[in-house]
Every structure is written in structure tokens, then in C-alpha cells.
Description:
Elements: E1 2-9, E2 12-13, E3 20-21, E4 23-31, E5 40-48, H1 49-54, E6 66-71, E7 77-82
Antiparallel strand pairs: 1-4, 1-6, 2-3, 4-5, 6-7
Amino acid sequence: MAKVIGVARNDFQIRGTDTQVTGVNIYLSETIDSSKGKGLSAEKIYLTDRKINDNRIDVDSLLGKQVRVLYNRYGKVEAVEILP
């Protein structure tokens, strides 16, 4: 379980192509397991606009929310689930 601490638009063009990728970086923090250390860890995940739309994610409402990140079998972020 992680907390969303930031959201930033990040659009880019794939090198050597005309393909434009649009989406957002989502910044997360979570408590480090006490058996492994102390404090918080942080990570950045990327969600394309397509995945945001397919999963009906309201990016603006994510800030400050507890979430679970779901990955596909290739280790890519598939969706972000808001937890109660």
C-alpha cells in the first residue's frame, strides 16, 4: 500500500519514430518494513492516458490517497486502485 504524493504530466515522443506517448508520472511513498530499515521509500510510476481512461482513473483525485499498484505479467503498471 502506497500514498500518492505527487502527479505530473509527462508526454514524450519515442526516439526514431513519430509516435507520441501521453500520460502522467505518479509519485508514491510508503513506510519501509521495520525489519529492513526506517522511514519512507519513494518511487515513480508512469501511466499512459490510455490506461488512465480504460481504468476510469481520476488523476486529480489521487493526490493524498492510499493506492495499490497493479502490474501486468511483464512488470508494467496496468492500473492504480484507490483503497478505502
